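C-alpha cells
________________
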Amino acid sequence: MAEATLLSGGSHAIMWRAPHDEVAEATRWCVNSHEVWRSLPEILTLVRGLPHHYYQEIIIEFHYVLLMNRKQNYLFPLAVIGIFFFSLGFALGINSYLMPVLKNAMHISGASSSLLLAATFVPFLIFGIPATACIRAVGYKRTMALSFGIFAIAFGLFIVAAQQRSLVWFLIASFVSGAANTVLQASVNPYVTILGPLNSAARRISCMGICNKLAWPVTTLFITFVIGKGIEQTRLADLYLPFAIIIGVFLALGLLALFAPLPDVKAAGEEESADKPADDASSSASYANSKTSILQFPHLLLGCLTLFLYVGVETISLATATGYAKSLGLEGDNYGFVPSIGMIVGYVAGVALIPRYLSQAAAMRICAVIAVAGSIAVALAPSPAVSVYCIFLMALGCSLMWPALWPLAMADLGKFTKAGSSLLTMSMAGGAVMPWIQGLVQDAYGFQASYWVCVPCFLFILYYGVWGYKIR
C-alpha cells in the first residue's frame, strides 16, 4: 500500500494508507490553516474511490489537522491584547483631558500642565528594566495583571489629587499611572511582535494601534458623559465618580489578564544561552549569539533614539489638539478625534498593505514624509481651524511609525529579545521630554509656533526608515 500525506501549513504532517499510488498522489495536499475547511470538499472528492473503512481513518487524521491549526489560531489572544491596548490609550487619554481642565481650574501655565505628560512618561525610563525582569520572573500574563493593579492605585491617587486640589498630587498620580503603563507596554508590545511571523508584525501592531488610538478621545467622551459637563465647566470634585468607575474597570481587566488563555510565546533564539550555539536554520539566533551585550546592536540603539523622538511627537499630536483648539477660541471640547482619526486611517492602511504590498521600512519612510509636511502645515497655516485640522496629517504620519519601528528595532535580537524590549520601553520616556519642550516654546512664542519642535524629530525618524535600521 502507498502512503498519502496531508500537510497543514507546511508544519504538521499526517499520513494514512491508500490502496493505489494514484490515490496517494492525488491526496498529497498542503492546507493553509485559514483555508482548511475550504479544502475539505476537494479532499473528499479525491478520496471517493477509497473503500469505506478508510474514510473513518481519513476523518480522524483530518480532525488532527484542525487541532494543529487551532493551536496556531491567535485570534482570541489578539482580541484580548486589543482590549489591553485600548486600556493603554484610555489611560494616556486622561492627560489630554486633564491638561485643559487643570489650566482652567487651577490657573496654571501651559508648561506646568504639560508636566502631567512628563510625569506619565518618566517612569518608562525608570521602570523599563524592572518591568522586563518581572516578565522573566512571572511571565507575560501575570505582568499584565500586575499593571492593571497599579493602574487602579493610580486612579485612586487621582481622586486624592482632586480632593486636595494639588498639582503635586496630580503629578504623583500621573507618575504611578505611567509606571503601570510601562509595565503593560513592556509586556504587550513584544508579545504582539512575536505572536506570529516577524514580517507581518507591523500588521498585528496596526490592529492593536486602532484599539489604542480609538481610546484617546473616548476618555474625554466618557468623563464628560458621566459628569454631564464640558471641559470649561468641569470642577475637580466632578472627577470622583468617573475615576471610581475606571478603578473598577481596571481591576476587572487585571482578572482578565490573569485568567485568559493567552499562549506563551518566545522570539527566535530567545532561549539560547550565551555559550550554546544557535540552530543553523535560525539566522537571527546565530547573529544574536555572536554578541555579548545588548549594546552591540546598533540598529536597536538607533531604534531606541528613534522611538524616544517618536513617542514625544506622537504624544504632542494626540494630547495637544483639544488644548490648541481651545486656545484659538474654537467651539467644542473633543478635538482629540482629529488626530485619532488620522492614526486610525493609517493603521487601517497598514493592516491592508503590510507586508503584502508595503514593507515595514517603506511604511515608516512614507509616514515620516507625511508627518514632516503635517507639522509644517500646522505651524504655518494662516487659519486657526485649518491649523488644528492639519494635526490630522501629523497623526496620519505617526500611525505606522510605531508598528514598523518595533519589529525593525527588535529584528535579529534572539536571546536579547527581552533586554531589547526593555530598552525600547525605556525610550518611551520621550513622551516626557518633547511635550515639555513644546510647552516651553508655547509659553515663549505661542501655541502654533510650538509645533516646529516636531519637524527635526520626524526627519530623524525618516533617516532610521531609510538607513538606520539596516546598520548591523
